[in-house]
Amino acid sequence: MRKLSLLLLLASLLHSCERFAPAPDETKAPRSEANNSPAPTVESPNEAPDTVEDRTALVSFPEDDSFLPKDWKTEPISAQIAPIASADIPKAKEIMETALAKYPSPLLGRFLNKVRIVGSLRFYDVGYGGTYMANAREVVLVYRSSFDDRGFEQRFHHEFSSLLLKKNESRFEDSRWHEANVSSFVYRAAGVIEEQSGEKSEATQVLEDEQKKTGGSGSNLLKLDPELMTQGFLTAYNQVSLEQDLNETAAHLFTNPDIWEYCRDHKRIDHKVDVLIDFYRTLDPALDRIYFRQITLPAQP
After folding, report:
1. For the chain, what is the domain count?
2. What pTM value is reported for the model?
3. 60 backbone dihedrals φ, ψ, rounded to 5°
4. Which domain covers residue 221, as residue numbers?
5. Does 301 map to a domain?
6. At what angle do helices 149-167 and 267-283 cross, to 10 degrees?
7. pLDDT digits over 53-91, tens only?
8. How far is CA 98 from CA 121, 161, 191, 210, 249, in A?
9. Which of 2, 75, 95, 123 has the fewest Cβ atoms surrounding its Cβ within 10 A?
10. Rounded-to-10 torsion of CA 288, 289, 295, 300
């Protein structure tokens, strides 16, 4: 049975200081690692991308679905893509240059082969906004001109954090992460990596339930929630699984200057940020707390 984990991409753009998200009718995609996923690539590192040109070379804009695993294209997944509009390519490249520049070149060389950007992506007949293929070391994202820059960048960090976790699960201190949650709390999906139960992951079920309840895209799941922060969760979606909790924390750690205010005000958030940074430090020691503070400094006028 295929194991395909969902990454919910915000479908309604919430123009507020709380959320920097892509535009309407986009939901974040099932992030995938499956028994029948693409054949594993050799785990030798790529040449480290040292320049802007090298990093940009990691980004491609496929015209068809030939890069997707064949079994994703059959039921029940029934994957479909549409290519990105040519007019949207320059902006998507610009945002990805910003995102990729935040990672040390050796880390990218070891763990990322390609970022594929399309105009739309569907799984289970639902519109999605991103997925990853851990064996192939690839991230797939949806971009359109209506998307918010920071929201699109956050989707990359969200997806890439899953790929890094999948490849380095033994380095992640999951028991320490759980210490930040109240003792009675249980994620809807068990384990560190969210695996599929039946045809759809728990995250997919959560998204579908929210869409049916509200008639919308499920965007409220990703709205920053001060009340949930007291319990150690940035959003309602963080409560689905440890993996989704880590993903959304990573998305804000790489992009949101307010993450440090959340850490100051909420010890449980601060604890998780510490665990996450320690995980990144095992991949490259340069990724320490000082570094993350520097990359999230507000732009100077």
Report:
1. 1
2. 0.83
3. -135, 165
4. 4-295
5. no
6. 60
7. 678 799 999 999 999 999 999 998 899 999 999 999 999
8. 23, 16, 32, 32, 19
9. 75
10. -140
